Amino acid sequence: MYPIYEAAGRELTLLDKAPGHISPHLHQAVEFVYVEKETLELGVGKELYHMEAGDFGVVFPNRIHHYQAFGGPGGRALFLLAPASMLSPFGNEWQQRAPRNPVIRRENVPADIVNAVHRLFESKKEERAVRQAYVQILFAKAMTRLELEEERGQEDADIVYQCVCYISEHFRETITMPEMAKALGVGRYVLSRVFSGTFHRNFNQYLNETRLNYACSLLMHTDRPVTEVCMEAGFESQRTFNRVFRQFCHMTPREYRREMETANRSAAGGRNL
Asked: Count of H helices and E strands in the chain?
């Protein structure tokens, strides 16, 4: 699963997964993506950028972005979400700017970036200072290849931006499409077309996926009881939570937590051999 609105607080989040469709979202982290195999389409704002194996992308905080994958079943991409606090040595001026084109082509990707990406995934249990150093290498090397421009911001009239922001702020609450349409000052049928045409799912599916991604983050990074995770993520009942979880993850929340714990122990054990 993909942590859409949070990146494990102040910590680095690493995801090694098969590329797939990820709906428009935003978060406060800097997101790096490195395509290992096949291809990936990275959408930032209203632009879509094609990525081949070996390409490296950088998405700045609070930028709506999404992914689409049309390659074969063997595709693989590495996603890294780094909190801005890890980039404090660079000041905060870069937070008011954004890359004109967020993708660095394979032939222009410095070897230091490839090495840092792989070292981060191979040493997930390293001290935070070590991981922060690798993140800073990624950012510093990427900045030598990216052309930054002043952040234009999102247009208030951009209904996709309004939808993402509204759900990111209210997904823990009980919300409906009519309520959201009223809050945004648009018709519910306009919203319905936005969700089917841009998000490629209906309102309830997108809302449940958002809640589910947050719940998965809590299951992975906290020891809160499953019932508490369910309520914290905004699900109306344990029954609904379990049904949605099985639908998307093909396992129960407890099985998911055990699987993540086993995977983390195996990764740690492998590095200590």
From this structure: 9, 11
CA torsion 56-60-65-69 (nearest 10°) is 10
How far is CA 126 from its chain centroid?
A: 22
Q: CB of 207 within 8 A of CB of 167?
A: yes
8 A C-beta contact, residue 248 and residue 4: no
The DSSP letter of residue 76 is E
Which residues, 6 or more positions from 36, have their beta carbon under 8 angstroms from its beta carbon? 53, 76, 77, 78
Q: Is residue 111 part of a domain?
A: yes
The one-letter amino acid at 47: E
- Structural domain count of the chain: 2
Q: Looking at the whole model, is its pTM more than 0.85?
A: no
Tokens representing 44?
């930032």
In a domain, 228, yes or no: yes
Q: Any residues with CB less than 8 A from the CB of 195 and at least 6 apart, and which?
A: 163, 201, 202, 203, 206
| Residue 90: DSSP 8-state | G
Pure H helices in 55-127: 111-122
pLDDT > 70 in the chain, percent: 88
Residue 1 is predicted with a pLDDT of 37
Q: Looking at the structure, tell me whether residues 32 and 129 fall in a common domain.
A: yes
Place of tokens 């499409």: 177
Total Cβ atoms within 10 A of residue 141: 20
CATH number at residue 89: 2.60.120.280
Average pLDDT over residues 175-199: 90
Residues 122 and 96 occupy one common structural domain: yes
> How far is Cα 258 from Cα 252, in angstroms, rounded to an integer?
10
If asked whether residues 41 and 65 sit together in one domain, one would say: yes
Domain of 200 in residue numbering reads as 159-260
